[in-house]
Amino acid sequence: MARSLGLKRATDARQAFLRGLRARPEDERQAIAVREQGRLDELEARIRARDAAQPEKLQRRLEALGVLREGLE
Fold first, then answer.
1. Which of 33, 42, 49, 71 is positioned for an S-S bond with 18, CB 3.0–4.6 A?
2. What is the pTM of this model?
3. Distance CA 57, CA 50 (A)
4. Please, are residues 14 and 25 in contact by the beta-carbon 8 Å criterion?
5. Model confidence over 39-54: pLDDT tens digits?
6. What is the pLDDT of residues 13-71, one digit of tens each?
7. What is the pLDDT of residue 28?
């Protein structure tokens, strides 16, 4: 996704998303954040199902997911 936006890293794309989010009016920002939280919830369910047998990998991915959630608060 980052490359399709002309960015080198996924973290750059995430930062651009968060900057854009902060630039939106409050009501729109809340709606976008709710939608993104839903997307992250779905991602968490897939991670838990896929990595349940590998606790270290599961924990590492859930921690990374937590970082993604932080910017939406």
1. 71
2. 0.83
3. 10
4. no
5. 999 999 999 999 999 9
6. 899 999 999 999 999 999 999 999 999 999 999 999 999 999 999 999 999 999 999 88
7. 96
Residue 10 near residue 2 (C-beta atoms within 8 A): yes
Contact between 47 and 61 under an 8 Å Cβ cutoff? The reply is yes
Looking at the 3D structure of the chain, how many domains does it have? Answer: 1
Buried b (16+ CB within 10 A) or exposed e, 3-28: eeeeeeeeeebbeebeeeeeeeeeee
What is the C-alpha to C-alpha distance for residues 53 and 13, in angstroms, rounded to an integer? 31
Tell me the backbone φ, ψ of residue 43, rounded to 5 degrees.
-65, -40
Domain that holds residue 27: 3-70
Residue among 68, 4, 2 nearest 36 (CA): 68
